[in-house]
Amino acid sequence: MSRRHIPGRRPVLAVLAAGALIGTLGAAGPVTGDPATAPAATATATAVVLDDTYYQDALGKSGEELKSALNTIISDQTKLSYSQVWDALKDTDEDPEDSSNVVLLYTGRSQSKDSNGGGSGQWNREHVWAKSHGDFGTSTGPGTDIHHLRPTDVQVNSTRGNKDFDEGGSELSDAPGNFTDGDSFEPRDEVKGDVARMILYMAVRYEGTDSFPDLEPNDQVDNGSQPYMGRLSVLKQWSQEDPPDSFEQRRNDVIFEQYQHNRNPFIDHPEWVDEIW
């Protein structure tokens, strides 16, 4: 049986969210207290449900055994066309404070969903794992996997190009907090962990067994067209320093519920980064 069709799996996440809301509001309206405890409780309850269903075959494993188990789990997905990615990103990266906008990855700018394209000041589709690293292009598969596709400013996307990720360089005048040099790009602090977990998702999902290249992180930069992305030691550090936030968690849920029906396991279990690498 396909994992995607385990009876009651996806609906149970919605039930948990509804339950948390009911518990917060109560029978007679809002209750007093710290509202921050409700999202934390919901996240914990959701993690328990996922471990009992989605991740059950990965629990208790480590190293290559864990990586192999996760590959089997997350490879069960619905694949999108590159044109479908436009609309998907309008949902996955929606600004929580303005539903007509998306939040751009590197700049953090909130911008109209309809301002997408290739012109100056617009946003386009950034392959966080650069599509030239493995030469998979934009064909259905890794080239359209929205777990690593994000809306970004056209100019900043061009500046990043196909560079590996590392620290250092000169700050971008049009995207303060981001730095670049001749062979690497450093994103702003608020999304360093997001970038790391997207890269590591790709390395687990695409193992060279389904006609796609075997993508792997390594500890170097300037990887060119090889199916590698660095720098692994820096990505691991970023994942620890910038743990998953509510925006990243919601994005994972939307991809799972509405589009690809698979998850980024390093958002649900950040500790698995060190278990594998």
TrEMBL record:
Gene: bsn
Originating organism: Streptomyces griseus
Keyword Signal: yes
Keywords, comma-separated and alphabetical: Hydrolase, Nuclease, Signal
Signal sequence bounds: 1-27
Chain segments carrying region Disordered: 132-188
Keyword Signal: yes
GO molecular function: hydrolase activity; nuclease activity
EC number: 3.1.-.-
InterPro entries: Endonuclease-I, His-Me_finger_sf, TAT_signal
Alphabetized PANTHER family for the sequence: ENDONUCLEASE-1
Listed name of the protein: Ribonuclease
